[in-house]
Amino acid sequence: MTAAERTRTKRAGSAGDALWYKDAIFYELHVKAFADSNNDGIGDFQGLIQKLDYIVDLGATCIWLLPFFPSPLRDDGYDISDYMNVHPSYGTLEDFRQFLNVAHDRCLQVMIELVVNHTSDQHPWFQAARHAPAGSPERDFYVWSDTDQRYRDARIIFTDTEKSNWSWDPVAQAYYWHRFFSHQPDLNFDNPQVLEEVLKVLRFWLDMGVDALRLDAVPYLVERDGTNCENLAETHAAIKAIRQAIDAEYGSRMILAEANQPPAAVRPYFGNADECHMAFHFPLMPRIYMALSQEDRLPITDIMAQTPEIPESCQWGLFLRNHDELTLEMVTGDERDYMYLAYSADPRMRINVGIRRRLAPLLDNNRGRIELLNSLLFSFPGTPILYYGDEIGMGDNIYLGDRNGVRTPMQWSGDRNAGFSRANPARLYSPVIMDAIYGYEAINVEAQEADPSSLLNWMRNMIALRKLFKVFGRGTLRFLDPSNRKILAYLRELDGEQVLCVANLSRVWQPVQLDLTGFEGMIPVEMLGYVEFPAVGKEYYPLTLGPYGFLWLELQTPSVSADDEQED
Amino acid sequence: MSGIEFPAELQKKIDETSPVDVVIGVTGTADPSALRTKAKCLRGIAPDGENGQPAKIVVAFAGAAVADPVTALEDGMLLAEYPTAPAAEVMNLWRDVSAAQRSVLALAAAWQSRACMVIYGDLAGLEAEPVRAFVEPVVKGGIDLVMPVYPVSKHDGLINKSILAPMSRALYGKRVRWPLAADYCAGAKMLEKLASDGARAQREADLLWPSNVVAMNGGQINQAAMKVRHAPPADGLDLNAVLQELVGSLFEEAEACAAQWQRARASQPATRQGEPCPPVESGEPVDTGPMVESFVIGSRNLEEVWRLVMPPATVLELKRLARQEPEQFRMPDALWARIIYDFALAHRMRRVSRTHVLGALTPLYLGWVASYVQEVAGATALEAERRVDQLGKVFEEQKPYFVSRWRWPERAV
Q1: What is the pTM of this model?
Q2: Which domains does chain B have, with CATH numbers?
Q3: Using the beta-carbon criterion (under 8 Å), do B266 and A465 form an inter-chain contact?
Q4: Which of A91, A515, B176, B214 is the most buried (most CB within 10 A)?
Q5: Helix crossing, B354-375 with B333-349: angle to 10°?
Q6: A&B contacts, CB < 8 Å
């Protein structure tokens, strides 16, 4: 242990339960988009601190912060030029510490990004590398080649902007490797020094008390000829080393893998519970939309059937939308064509291999559809992740470039700039949404807080309800197979607690007969209103659901009251 | 781990002498010489060991001894001082008592004690017979918690009778007469749970509801007579403050434990063992006129808050009650149960400040008291007890109303 390590001050994790992430509700936000405290048109940590009570009231338990580090911002912060600082537009390190403390005081955990597949080309490591002689330790921080023909089997991810994964650097007189934008050179994880530096970054934030790290673009850490350069054994070795460092030095922390892969390919990222604690379930999301559009449960049950078991301490991260496009990389060509037709009539809604739209516009602002999809999000096995603004049904702006149309300022009120900032509207980092349907005057927090029937209040109730039942975060899943395929029905079970979820994917009323063999005599109790339904008998259990309706039914054994107590 | 750390010297003594059989902890400061004298009577409260050695008993009290926090008494008994915050030395509030109880329970857990009896600081309960009645079922019978039944008249302990006991019974599924008690005995399995009591123990203002905690952890609860009468910790405080402290804490407990109590259905009796408490007849008749008047004034002045807390049907029913002749004033049990549940929900939702919510409950509580006093005016103590039990049943019957409103509350103001 070095002298510096001996003098490190480490703050304990804020969560009492080591498996806290299994019961969590994540809320994803960008500091720049949430609240602007100094009226410069850009959100900042002080603004976020002022809005923490809103997140608490929503019921979220963990805030996921998109990158807030110093960066040229050519990829919305995923091009980092200094891993151990805060972008001056958002505040200072001290502001971050204050935010972290205030969040922890409110029993909120905090997840930040560990973007270590690549850096910005402005990062001092890259600048040193391109000026250093070939073969030197500095040069070796990145992946260089004299030819752009290596690793030819690796696909290009940003197909709209990049033609190759190699770019020529005139200073180094060599090609450098980048899986994303050309200004984001990939770090060279074959160099042990790189991993050491990554661990220093990790310790810097975990020492401060950060609870979780999202490992961005994790399948692409290592490259090998003759492979697609994804999910390689050497990549898993690097993740294991990261996990080992966390387990050795910290308690109650979590790492989440961003691996946009089929479920079977994501499974190794959990390892034997010695790699990531969590991983996103990317393929589920488009299939939920497909099932809704086709009014057929098959896309969902099919992808879940392909989803392997994961270690007990691990968890899937589930989401309906996020800061990126609705990615269609993990669906077949036919399915992709179908999704484009169903959900992106205007070509401007498409980007790369996906659809850049928010939840509400994707669902035609249909409240029943929005509620139905959220009911699936909250009742499927995994931890739900909400994207800021979707809880009020915010819209998007497809006329903004890249994925900026889904990263517009949070709509707090009908005031100027949606209450996000008091700056001159022209100075905002992004225009607020102003159209007639989704514009801030129609869709904002203030209005929805005052409206008992608002989506916001519905979301608050649903989240609070989900948090009452650990079965949703930790229980098993078993699909029922009713003949009506417009109905999705599944059982969640944990330690004797059984919940039956039934969802109507159709726009019209649907009847269904459920085979509840094994539950005879039990009383289904509708969970939202605590209403007893008729007891389960020997016959199929009949239910009828309205358009996009859903039912959560707790299967209870009939209660027996004991005799009256003896009296004095 | 309970999360409570002891001074090094005390911890050292604990390590040297653990395990012990019983820790008897006084929740307050005490004169050590008086305790030494009193402690002599406790020698026989727990059975001797297999080799005939006397049971190892620790008598603990709140103190400040640093150098020698544990001294030996006769026959294997030890006298220990546990640290307490200076503010808690005079325990005039339930939160101080609860903090001291947590310290005692943590001390017993550290000592790996088989049982821990907490005794109220006035030492009235520190007698061989009552202590044995509480300790024996735990040590010999494997009971997890023995709660007290105090001898009170039909007019005593009305906050407990009207709110604390029936709501605890309905929510946590155990029919415990005094869920917020000054004296009780807990078994080894529950010591850590009670001492730490989840994250809530970190919040000093929170009271410890031992039977609710044990019920949520599936423990077995009995009740035994504690034939002493304490001056309650809240004596001398105004009613508002007492409701804020006691009912506010019960509501907070409900919020913190919603996932657990919504699973509990129906209720089970907590077996009463030993000699019952003799009935205590009440003295002078109580004049209910001022209480009804407070209720009526409240219905006029607090209607705005009441309408935020309760649904229109309930507010309407209260308006009708306010028009009753004072001597005919009766508040139906179902209405009262729904009122309490609505206030618990409003407390959770923070539609108005919690102080205002609980303040608006005061005239309603006085209305209930007036109704109850008039109803049991001619009843014996036993009949009045049955009446209270009936109220508990109604709280159970109305629980689905509470769960329903809890799960899908109206959120906007």
Answers
A1: 0.91
A2: 8-273 (3.90.550.10), 289-407 (no CATH)
A3: no
A4: B176
A5: 170
A6: 75
